[in-house]
Amino acid sequence: MFSKQLFNTLVPFLNYIQIGVLIFSFYVCKIFKKLYSQVDYIFGTYEIANNLENLSSTFENSKVVCFYRNRFYSNNNYDYEIYFNNIYLRILIIFIYGPLLLGYLMNKSENFFYIWNKGFLFNRKYEFYFLKKKKKKLILFYCGSDIRSPTLSLNYTDSKGIDNHLNYLDKNTNTILDKKVKIEASLADQYADLIFSAKLDQISYIKKEIHRPPYSYPKSKFNFNTEKFNFKTPILIVHAPSSPIAKGTQLVRAAIKKLELKGYDFEYIELINKPNEEVLSILSRSHIVLNQFYGHGEGIGLLGVEAMANMNCLMMSLDDDYRYENVNINDVIFNTKYWEIDEKLKFLLDHPHEIKKMAVAGYDFTLNNFESEKAKFTYQKIFKKIS
């Protein structure tokens, strides 16, 4: 029976085969290069927080590769993708399809934009090496635990005397992950032309310059609706954690229970493992969104952007000094530390006009900075550094 141990044993042999297939594919496709329409960017290969979909739609003349779909965004369509959920079948397909596709796409574009720490080959080091050898631009976009060092993150929060969700994870898991992100950081420093990440939220071993990525959200999904703040129905509070422990769901539930016992009238909806369409439907009529409460940097997250784009008062924990395009984040997000959830939520329930005020400010901020065309302009300014 196929096992992870057997796969790991075979990896060195499989790597050589993949490298051979990549070289074969690249040079064969090069013969027909003049027949291929050229594109500006290749995006791939991991769908995390809908970044693949949003970024590829922002840059129209691009192709997107998805080998790892996100179950919450089932309606997304990609140019090249693998549908199978079975991990062994997926590995088997990537084994041949990955290098064949990469060799072909290297003849269609000069720019490769990687999201997360997955690519076309099992051997990421050789993949990057081959791209750079052929003069391709390599852009890396990190989203979280793909680059965050548990050791550095815990050291930082310990120095600030604040809690970290990593305190509640197995120490061995943190140690194993730390080794992996050290390797990834080394590859980024050696090969990347541009690196996008949240420098503090995703504190890492990367030594190169790190750019803060602007979120890219389609204008069609913005929903301006002030009528819901007439409060003809109870105030609707939403919490939709992608990872409950990391987002502080246990603290949210405690705060909600405390307010219920005090007699406050509101509706609370918790959305876990729900499709994005359902989440957006509820956000369109909700008033307050509780995002994540162990944050200590500048990572708003896609849910935060979706919440503000649907005119909600967003409650989450961020660095107090965080500014974006000269906007003090405390003016558009109700900055809430993990020990303040019940207190600040009580304030909003006692002062509903503040909910609307923050929701409108958050909507304007998101529209002015993260709407797709605005995000594209920001990206293009950064891309000029490698043009």
- Order of secondary-structure elements: HEHEEHEHEHHEEHHEHEHEEEEHHH
Q: What is the count of distinct domains?
A: 2
The count of β-strands is: 13
Spatial shape: globular
Rg estimate, integer Å: 22 Å
- Strand composition percent: 5-15%
Mean pLDDT: 94
Structure classification? alpha/beta
Molecular structure report:
The protein has helices at 4-31, 51-58, 87-105, 124-133, 150-160, 171-191, 244-247, 249-261, 276-283, 301-309, 341-350, 352-369, 372-383; strands at 41-45, 62-66, 80-81, 111-115, 137-141, 194-196, 235-239, 266-270, 288-290, 313-316, 323-324, 327-328, 334-335. The chain is α/β, with parallel strands linked by helices. It folds into two domains: 4-216 and 373-383, no CATH class; 219-370, Rossmann fold. The protein has a six-stranded parallel beta sheet with strand order 3-2-1-4-5-6, sandwiched between helices. The protein has a five-stranded parallel beta sheet with strand order 8-7-9-10-13, sandwiched between helices.
